[in-house]
Specification:
heterodimer; A: about 300 residues; alpha+beta; 4-stranded antiparallel beta sheet; 10 helices; 4 strands; about 10% strand; B: about 240 residues; Rossmann fold; 6-stranded mixed beta sheet; 8 helices; 10 strands; globular; disordered N terminus
Amino acid sequence: MTLAFDVRRWWPAPLLPRQDGRDLALLFVVAALSLLAGLAAIGALAGHRAAEGWRTELTGSATVVVRAQGTETADEAAARAASVVAGVKGVAEARALEPAKAQALIAPWIGPGALPPDLPTPRLVAVDLDRKHPASGADIARALKSAGVDADVDDHSRWSAQIMRAGAATQGVAAAIFALIVAALGGVVAFATRQGLAARHEVVEALHLTGATDGYIARLFQARFARSAAQASLAGAALAAIAAAALKLATAGDQQLTALIPIAWTDLVAVAPFPIIGAMTAALTARLTAMAALGARP
Amino acid sequence: MSRKPLDLPSAGASQPIVRFEGVSMRYGREPEVLKDVSLELERGSFHFLTGPSGSGKSTLLKLIYLAEQASRGRIEIFGQDLALLKRHERPLMRRKIGVVFQEFRLLDHMTVFDNAALAPRIAGRKPTGYRDDVADLLNWVGLGARMHAMPPALSGGEKQRLAIARAVINRPDILLADEPTGNVDEAMAMRILRLFLELNRVGATVLIASHDTALVARSGMPVLTLQEGRLAREPDFAPEHVE
């Protein structure tokens, strides 16, 4: 008898039974892990961008504290210092701050209106540096010293270094969280594979005794869990992207929040490889687990 | 039926295809199920294996189809010492051994057709290379009209016939059957016996564990008897040969 066009004979049934409730639980857990990983990745990118922005702002400026000497008044000393600094290569602009602005800067420490008018307070010079080729604090200090100006230069390097360290630490934590989530995914898939082998032991036994190799049987579980993990990771990654997009839209009108969480639309692309990462992690884990379990059989 | 050649060495014409030498078998710390069993099955031979329940018939078959490993002694299949057989060689050897399990071991999520096609599929044959063979075989065992049924919908006899079809589809060199006629009527039992004899005529070595004394008697084939794990070869008898 020839049944050449019977589709059920052209496409044989899968050797493992179709998904059941246990597989749905796995899908949910993997989707949740993928969501957390996606938020961690997008958060790390936004954190990096925030730290970079703060660092750029700090390294793009410097402050010079000027003290008057001899018969020169503080205002004259500040004006001379600003003139000297403006001539340094790598300085875009230097301007002496008005006394009121200088006093406002130290008001938080001594209180408003508590400063005696005759107290000889130092004058400040605000310096904007060239963005591409900024002058260093040492360059400015050398120029001031050559001009005989008694001044200290703060190029904010201390703060920018701390911000860089904080940014790097944030990225490290995000990477650790991501690695932890991938490891958790591996653990969940390993557990599910062992459960699957136990739950379908009759199928595994029948395949074994019909001549299936360990690798052949492991490939069935490998393909099953890779496909499930890819689907669940896709769902989790999509949810993470939607959540990040919603956060970006919600903070769009608030400059402070935007500066704190500067999510860019391109950051959402970070979750794109998640289905592949999820599938590969699941495939590898399922194969290793299945091979180890099958290897213990006669 | 065409068969994919395997790379395993075959026993020579004069070499027994199955050889047990002082084989004993126990499960865990339980008493020995088989005790010092020695036997040789020549290539192309046909034997029945009888004995009361618990005498070790199923265990002896399991040792041959590599589902268990002997506790003591030496087993050679196709001239290969199983103790020296590498793990990756075992599946290749299993593909040359067809087994009809007492409890059938059908895959309930697959159709009758897919169950029968399992062995060639696992052996890597393309569906175009085996689907007509499977259909012909299912027709022969009387399951042609039930190819797309699922095993839970089959009667005991139908499951039995499907299990037999699955075991013989690849034309195994060794055919083992554990109570293959336990769930079928006498007519079907004789038909199954004729199938085994036919496979035996074309070269398969057949060993059937059976309680069906009438069938054993009608076959006229030699009988191996197990008593409390020990083997006693009975004299051959041929009262009623099946033609």
